[in-house]
Amino acid sequence: MKLDWKTCFKVVVTVVITFLVIHFVDSIFAALGIAMNALNPLIAGLIIAYVVNIPTSFYERHYFPNSEKSSVTKSRRPVCMLLGYLTIILVIVLALLLVIPQFVSCIKTFIDQLPSLVLSILENKTVVGLLPDSIIEWLEGINWNDIASNVSSIAGIISLLSASIADVQGTVDTVTSVAPTVVSVLSTSLIGIVFSVYFLSAKDKLLAQFKRLADAYLKPKWHDRIYYILGTLNESYHGYIVVQCTEAVLLGTLCTIGMLILQLPYPTMIGALIGLTALIPIAGAWIGTIIGAFMILTVSPIQALIFILFILVLQFVDNYFIYPRIVGKSIGLPSVWVLAAVSVGGGIFGIPGMLICVPLFSAIYKLLKTDVDKRNGESGEAGEVPEIETIENADT
What is the C-alpha separation between 37 and 31, in angstroms, rounded? Predict the structure, then answer.
């Protein structure tokens, strides 16, 4: 084979670049970390804009859809954006108002009952026989009534926190170590919200600019492929967010109604908690059930058992009757791959990773399925997805 100077030059450049990447890999990763930190507000803005765009698009489709008046068309985007942000804020505020007050009340109830609980444990010979003598002596030497009276009051909590700090310098060190993180999170969130407002107000223009750049610099084959991939991702994430939120609201409402009928304690709080944790695939239902059962256990063990049985029945009804009708084929991911997505996402990024990886795996599954069907000569019509511009027309 005859080698020309261009081929040799490409080989040399490739070798040099590979050597530099391997030799300076730590510096490259450090630079990437700095770049990602700088891009955090932009990424946060994109995420916020994508989520807020779902109710915004819904309102735009119902905001005098048949009117062609100039005042209506000019006010449609800002009014619907405002309604979209208010919807998200209202959902968050309602969830906090329903959960936090009763959660605090439940913790205080648990603390008040802590002395009698510890005494009953110490009087149980079976439990005492399982514990070492040193632990039994330590438990018996604690004045649980004083702890309960201190912790149950705000003044007691403040005194315990202040007592745990050795001196003023320790307080200063704590504040100085926490303050930068708090300031960074707040600044990133505020700048992200500003970015999201800009993205939503100019989304049509931004999409048109992206399309012009793709038409100018990409070959038609790559242009169509990128739009197909982005359309599939949009379909998966949009459908996942809408379906999970709908299912969470319905499940939380049914849980609240059922607990009111059974006269169980904390119905609104636990119903809201079950709805919120239902957003987490697979593990969410168990997380909500465990926390809810613990809350009710502070009031009555029998009622906690009734609650667990009720949730098991509710989960059965949801899994076999409600969820399939609501979800349909919007996710299109087999159960084993949902479990894999939850495991991988949770292992890498925790709960946010679970929420991100399930629709991501769904999109990858659809893309691979369509490509395999195409290569095997099967019809690819089932794998067609809307283009990215059709996010405005997706059903909510």
Answer: 10
